[in-house]
Write a structure and sequence with these properties.
With about 425 residues, the chain is of the alpha/beta class. About 35% of the residues lie in helices and about 20% in strands. The chain has two domains: about 5-215 and about 330-410, Aminopeptidase, CATH 3.40.630.10; about 215-330, 2-Layer Sandwich (Alpha-Beta Plaits), CATH 3.30.70. The chain contains twelve helices and 15 strands. Strand 1 and strand 2 (about 35) form a beta hairpin. It binds (2S)-amino(hydroxy)ethanoic acid and manganese (II) ion (2 copies).
Length: about 425
């Protein structure tokens, strides 16, 4: 049966729920959480499972040079596909919905169309991208960045992880160094369903977020070299204390966010001291700072203020500071017409909906420069994410997946 848009078609919520639970069992950690850091064995097992599902759905699966996996369902015409997808790698203390929901909801769209015997005019594509999180190998959105031409493949394959592993070697080890070319795949449009990972939809009791864009992201690593010395005998004015400088950076990062207000956020997620002993002044500190803002000019101002603070403090304390940019993304705006379609579709399905920006980075932002792109958010309980307590209800997932289904059908007709 060749149909374009079947307004009454709906996804199978139980089947989607089963797949979410099954994938969450791979890399399961205490508290219903998931740990599938990019290119670990857990990530490999998750990849194997999702590729099996893709093949069972009759899709043609391809793997590219950085391990991105894209499955295609043929359309009536051989034209640019309507694509959806996200990531299945997680942070070390992740939840079962971040990224995973977007990939499995995409497969649920395919399964629902298979059940209904519907063939769309355009092909449909569902993908998962390597290392969206950037927690093991920086930067984040790495795979989708290579896929869409923002990052150089060889440079990313040479990336050293926080565990000193090399990305390309890990990719080979897990058997996902694919042959498909990168930066060749262009889509008619790209949609990503994702949990909001923040408190807005829940607080406003709204079912669907029509995401207008993604804020700018700046990750910097500071490697501070001081002098180890005795904690008791060293007079304060003679110290070159790397631990003190690291802690001062964390305090200043917070002060910058508080002073600037608006959408400015600042996070010090890692501080490693050497030798990390109670009675030894640290000779080395490694600290990362994550700054984000919806406005590029303000984000640059925050970066400058922190950089000035660090260089002044380093001179005062007599330490050496080497800084390295781990990730830098300017704010991204999604396609207004596609955002409007998400809004209209949510409304026609009877769901409340509001436009909103994304505080988190997403694979979708890497598609935005090349193709019309938009995202669909569903609520996060208590606004929690990157935490095993991450939760979104089956009913909220059903709403988001049905909006995804209908928007994809609309664009593929
Ligand atoms: O850091 C982020 O915003 C995303 O989770 N990678
Ligand atoms: Mn995510
Ligand atoms: Mn995440």
């Amino acid at each position: 049966m060749q149909v374009n848009t079947i307004a009454e078609l709906r996804i199978d919520t139980e089947r989607l729920g089963r797949r979410i639970a099954e994938l969450a069992s791979i890399g399961a950690i205490e508290g219903d959480g998931v740990c599938r850091l990019a290119l670990t064995d857990e990530d490999r097992l998750g990849r194997d499972q999702v590729c099996d599902w893709m093949r069972q759905l009759g899709m043609r699966v391809s793997i590219d040079g950085i391990g991105n996996v894209v499955a295609i369902r043929a359309g009536l015409e051989d034209v640019a596909p309507v694509m959806t997808g996200s990531h299945i790698d997680t942070v070390a203390t992740g939840g079962r919905y971040d990224g995973t929901l977007g990939v499995l909801a995409g497969l649920e769209v395919i399964a629902s169309l298979n059940d209904a015997g519907i063939t769309t005019r355009r092909p449909l594509a569902v993908g998962f991208f390597t290392n969206e999180e950037g927690a093991r190998f920086a930067p984040d959105m790495m795979g989708s960045g290579v896929h869409q031409g923002a990052f150089d493949l060889d440079e990313m394959l040479a990336t050293r992880g926080i565990d000193n592993s090399i990305l390309g070697e890990e990719l080979q080890r897990i058997g996902y160094a694919g042959a498909a070319e990168v930066d060749r795949f262009r889509v008619h449009c790209f949609l990503e369903l994702h949990v909001e990972q923040g408190p807005v939809l829940e607080q406003e009791a709204i079912s669907i977020g029509a995401v207008t864009g993604v804020q700018g992201i700046s990750w910097t690593e500071y490697r501070i070299a001081g002098t180890s010395n005795h904690a008791g005998t060293t007079p304060m004015h003679l110290r070159h204390d790397a631990g003190y400088v690291a802690a001062a950076i964390a305090v200043e990062a917070r002060r910058i966010a508080d002073d600037m207000g608006g959408s400015q956020v600042a996070t010090v997620g890692t501080i490693d001291l050497v030798p990390n002993l109670v009675n030894v002044i640290a000779r080395q500190a490694l600290v990362t700072v994550d700054l984000r803002n919806m406005d590029e000019t303000l984000l640059q101002a925050a970066e400058r203020r922190l950089a000035d603070f660090v260089s002044e403090l380093a001179a005062d304390e007599g330490v050496e500071v080497a800084q390295r940019k781990l990730a830098r993304f300017e704010p991204v705006s999604f396609d207004n017409a596609l955002v409007a379609l998400v809004e209209e579709t949510a409304g026609s399905l009877g769901f409340s909906c509001r436009r909103m920006p994304s505080g988190a980075g997403h694979d979708a932002q890497m598609f935005a420069p090349n193709s019309p792109t938009a995202m669909i958010f569903v609520p996060s309980k208590n606004g929690i994410s990157h935490n095993v307590a991450e939760f979104t209800s089956a009913q909220e997932i059903e709403a988001g997946a049905n909006v995804l289904l209908q928007v994809m059908l609309n664009k593929a007709s």
